[in-house]
Amino acid sequence: MTRLLIFILLLIWFHVSEYLLARRFHPGEVDKSSWLLSAPYVTAMVCGVLEYNFSPFVWQQMPQYFAVSLAWLGCVMMLGGEIIRKSAILTAGHNFTHKIATKRKPEHRLCTAGVYSVVRHPAYLGFVLFSVGSQIWLGNVCCTVAFMIITWRFMALRIRVEDALLYKFFGEEWLAWKKQVPFSGIPGVP
Known about the structure:
The chain has 7 helices and no strands. By secondary structure, the protein is an all-alpha fold. Helix 2 (39-54) packs antiparallel against helix 6 (141-170) and helix 4 packs antiparallel against helix 5. The N and C termini lie far apart (40 Å). The model has no long low-confidence stretch (mean pLDDT 93).
């Protein structure tokens, strides 16, 4: 199979599984946004496919062992990111939503077990690994750098907003957990 075909299959798996998990845990709230296919995201992925198709020289310019190592790194990042993200969703269950909750529901609990005992925002870490890994897998130099910058900025802002809300919802319980699990999931974001 070609790199592009594997990329497309993993991308389809990612989005179908996101939708199915949203439907499982929040059946009344599922809509087209549950597919996680925003216009900027689709544009970014199309740019990745275009770069892959129009710059095959990247792989030809490097030694074979290095090209293979990079491809495997990208593949491991994609699969690892997917495993981390889906583990986070399954661990959080009904507490996980694609949209940040701005009001605490009575059944809302702070997730501190499983992957949340190691990383405070494992779903975000998984998403970044998956998206950046996809571009490394394809051998896209420009899109790899762009995805790193864009996903870091997006997740950094989202974590700050979510952490403020989690503190508002859970107070001292959240502070104790943050102290116990200092890694947010995104390097450079406290």
